[in-house]
Amino acid sequence: MHNTTIVSTQFLSVQDVAAIVGRVGIRTVLERLAQRIDDDYQRWETFDKVARVAAHSAEGVIELMPIADDTTYTFKYVNGHPKNTKDGLPTVMAFGVLADVDTGAPELLTELTLTTALRTAAMSAVAARALARPNSKTMALIGNGAQGEFQALAFHYLNGIEEIRLFDIDPAATRKLMDNLAHTGLRFVVCNSTAEAVRGADIVTTVTADKTNAVILSADMLEPGMHINGVGGDCPGKTEIHPDVLRASSCFVQYEPQTRIEGDLQHMPADFAVTELWRVLRGDAAGRSAENEITFFDSVGFALEDYSALCLLRDLSKELGMGQTLALVPSLPDPKDLFSLIRPAQAVGRRVATPETELEFDV
User: Fold this and answer.
1) What is the pLDDT of residues 233-274, one digit of tens each?
2) Rounded CA gap, 62 and 81, in Å?
3) Could you list the active site residues?
4) Spatial distance between the Cα atoms of 13 and 111, rounded to a whole number of angstroms
5) 294-313 as b/e, with b when 16 or more CB fall inside 10 Å?
């Protein structure tokens, strides 16, 4: 007989994560998340990495995003279905798991829909700190939907952006963003086109949702020294940036094997030169090398950022004493006797047959 080992899994609901952000403050959450992402990217070689596994359909995609180092394994389940909003559903829905590598025990199960928006914005800010001009004050934000506020706040709090030039084909989305961020010190300029929004902007962030090879930004809109943060092109057949923009830019990616399949990089030949961002963050490669250089970050989302986010949620939930415990894994006196969980209560014996006879034993 073994001593029963209790395996408990911490669970964080959407309401729990929202409450954590409320108690800590979104600025502090973004700051800690950006620092965690930066630190984790700088130990790139310690992670076992693969491109995400995707199931594509006519209307969207469902993906699994796993990654691990020698102590912690994480994965995220996430979808992308742009037409969902017409049915009252989010375009993106996600949850994730953090587990102990030594035992495989799941330590944390949490929502990642809200968290994905936070980590994507934090990742954008980390990349821009390395690639944009350090005195950048103005950003064009093309696409003002569910991700818009998070991008605006990350660039405001972490990168010193003071003015956001807004454009969306849905004016209601732009009004929603401005209402949600009316309490901040940001200046908003509502524009009638992408071309108008990007004029004079230090940074351009595109975060549109349609699953199509769109041209949101074209080369004629570029200005010397601009940094482009392409977020919306994140699966095969879904792009935002004209190939000539990439040709005119120094291009940076998260994980090259994944970005060549999913990002705006899918337009380009296999030998088109890119630099993985971890090399810039660690000082192994140059980022921006000239004031008038155009830089482009092809942001498709990578599992390492979810690893960082899950680790931060684990830490914050412990610090604040939030969440609840789930019995996700059975606790057994004899770990080899899984059947004991469903053995009928009235069972008092079992029959063991041999070639010669049958014997009945009490149990």
Assistant:
1) 988 999 999 999 999 999 999 999 999 999 999 999 999 999
2) 9
3) 234
4) 6
5) bbbbbbbbbbbbbbbbbbbb
